[in-house]
Automatic annotation (TrEMBL):
<dbReference type="Pfam" id="PF05050">
    <property type="entry name" value="Methyltransf_21"/>
</dbReference>
<dbReference type="GO" id="GO:0031902">
    <property type="term" value="C:late endosome membrane"/>
</dbReference>
<dbReference type="GO" id="GO:0005789">
    <property type="term" value="C:endoplasmic reticulum membrane"/>
</dbReference>
<dbReference type="InterPro" id="IPR006342">
    <property type="entry name" value="FkbM_mtfrase"/>
</dbReference>
<dbReference type="GO" id="GO:0005886">
    <property type="term" value="C:plasma membrane"/>
</dbReference>
<protein>
    <submittedName>
        <fullName>Methyltransferase FkbM domain-containing protein</fullName>
    </submittedName>
</protein>
<dbReference type="GO" id="GO:0006888">
    <property type="term" value="P:endoplasmic reticulum to Golgi vesicle-mediated transport"/>
</dbReference>
<dbReference type="InterPro" id="IPR053202">
    <property type="entry name" value="EGF_Rcpt_Signaling_Reg"/>
</dbReference>
<feature type="domain" description="Methyltransferase FkbM">
    <location>
        <begin position="123"/>
        <end position="239"/>
    </location>
</feature>
<dbReference type="GO" id="GO:0005794">
    <property type="term" value="C:Golgi apparatus"/>
</dbReference>
<dbReference type="GO" id="GO:0016197">
    <property type="term" value="P:endosomal transport"/>
</dbReference>
<dbReference type="InterPro" id="IPR029063">
    <property type="entry name" value="SAM-dependent_MTases_sf"/>
</dbReference>
Length: 249
């Protein structure tokens, strides 16, 4: 019988322990892959566009086909009646912060005299919590509305918040017609990449719709509060709105 030295035995045992640890780590790492894949699939399914004839200058913002298309990019809100339920609670990073808007919501509340049951549209919604101009109205004054966020990385965080509002992984068009644009990703400073811009970070193609098309899809004509923060292109969006058909407080 071959006798093994004590040093060799220890070497074999240590090697076995190391290999077992590596194997266990690999199994744990591999087991997380499906969850990552599912999350990525959930995010990117909204950004895989099929070619159609519903983009470009020839498409009117009130075209019934376009309105139907907008509806397919709207995710229904959690029922406001479930606001305090265990099943669908808000999932906020800082729930103790009542107003994360850095003062903007307070001024709007004063102007609207703490109106209840209103309707907002927030373009540039980010993650639905950080610097949100609409969250206070939703949590404490029973409002609902529409949250628009083009950046897929921000949008997946927005989905997790369980907001009581419609959400859409799209952008407001800077023209009076729908279009797919190049969007520069930059956390809370992301923006549509116009021709004069020098794109520095990552980009993604995003579907944009005219403001009025969203309203038709939601069957809404009165907006109590419109929060527009799209990094310098606000005036372009405002120029597309048919104010004779829309009432914005």
């Amino acid at each position: 019988m071959v006798k093994l030295s004590r040093r060799f035995k220890y070497a074999v045992i240590i090697s076995a322990v190391i290999m077992s640890s590596i194997l266990m780590y690999k199994l744990q790492w591999d087991s997380s892959l499906p969850a990552v894949d599912i999350e990525q699939e959930e995010i990117w399914k909204w950004y895989n566009y099929t070619e159609d004839n519903l983009n470009g200058p020839k498409v009117s913002m009130d075209d019934p086909r376009l309105v139907q298309k907008v509806k397919s990019f709207l995710i229904k809100p959690v029922d406001y009646k479930l606001k305090s339920s265990i099943e669908y609670p808000y999932k906020l990073s800082n729930p103790e912060v009542k107003d994360p808007s850095m003062g903007q919501a307070e001024r709007i509340r004063t102007l609207l005299r703490n109106k209840e049951n209103g309707f907002f549209i927030e373009a540039g919604a980010l993650d639905g919590e950080t610097r949100s101009n609409s969250l206070y109205f939703e949590r404490y004054l029973n409002w609902t509305g529409l949250l628009i966020e083009p950046d897929p990385l921000n949008f997946v965080e927005l989905v997790k918040r369980n907001r009581r509002a419609w959400i859409s992984p799209t952008c407001l068009s800077i023209n009076s017609y729908p279009d797919v644009v190049l969007f520069e990703q930059n956390r809370n400073m992301g923006k549509i990449a116009v021709k004069s811009d020098k794109v520095k970070g990552n980009t993604v193609n995003v579907q944009c719709f005219p403001f009025y098309s969203y309203l038709l899809a939601l069957n809404v004509t009165h907006i109590d509060y419109f929060s527009l923060d799209i990094e310098g292109l606000e005036l372009d969006v405002l120029k597309t709105i048919p104010f004779k058909d829309v009432n914005i407080e």
